[in-house]
Specification:
single chain; alpha+beta; 5-stranded mixed beta sheet; 57% helix
Length: 230
């Protein structure tokens, strides 16, 4: 575990705060979720035992990906990876991390329509099941579902992924506190889902991400690390 944690403490190229704090929805009880990317030294790939693709810790609520794994996820439009690249709360970025951030646009594509709606639909199914079972949903889950639907809709409309909810904070916190009747929440969710589909039909996003640009970056990071190991 100590060796794995050293990958984070010694080789992180980018780290940020995610979750409610990045979305602008934090309360006094909110945790501080940290996400990061580390570039494992090239020499660690030369033997039979490869470095881990991700590491939990060493801090509480901290999770990091190895650079290649992170790029793979982001190229597939994984919502968590894409949001990590667009956090407004960047805590650390070295030269490679800053270049990774400069590549944010290369990861964005129409694939986000499928991945974000897939995530949202799964969360909606959980909310519907909770209502059938108990008469009420998990209101925190509904709040975040509204947020991600709005974020995905705006991404497809504009080509820009924005995490902070801005002036929608109080409205969304009202949902979290259970002060919105479920039928009204359903109407909002259905409307946003329809708006998301409309946005997808005319999105400015490219059909696929710019894999070549991302791969060029990854190879340069690996080559520089290999040169240092010689």
């Amino acid at each position: 575990m100590r060796t794995m944690h050293a990958l984070v403490t010694d080789h992180t190229i980018y780290s940020c705060v995610m979750g409610s704090r990045a979305f602008g929805l934090a309360t006094e009880a909110s945790d501080t979720d940290r996400r990061g990317v580390y570039a494992a030294p090239a020499a660690l790939f030369w033997g039979f035992d490869k470095p881990p693709t991700h590491v939990e810790g060493p801090a509480e609520e901290q999770f990091s990906w190895e650079l290649e794994r992170f790029c793979e996820l982001a190229l597939r439009a994984n919502p968590t990876a894409l949001e990590c690249l667009h956090s407004p709360l960047v805590e650390y970025a070295d030269e490679r991390g800053r270049e990774l951030l400069a590549l944010r646009g290369a990861f964005l594509s129409r694939l986000a329509h499928r991945t974000f709606t897939g995530y949202a639909d799964a969360q909606r199914a959980k909310s519907d099941a909770a209502v059938r079972r108990t008469g009420a949903p998990n209101w925190k889950q509904v709040m975040h579902l509204l947020r991600i639907l709005e974020s995905a809709r705006d991404l497809l409309r504009t080509g820009v992924l924005t995490l902070a909810v801005g002036d929608r904070r109080e409205e969304l916190l009202t949902v979290r506190h259970g002060e919105l009747p479920w039928p009204e929440a359903e109407r909002r969710l259905n409307r946003l889902r329809d708006e998301l589909e409309t946005a997808a039909s005319a999105t400015p996003l490219p059909a696929v991400p710019d894999r070549a640009r991302v791969e060029d970056f990854l190879i340069r990071v690996r080559r520089a690390s290999a040169a240092e190991a010689v």
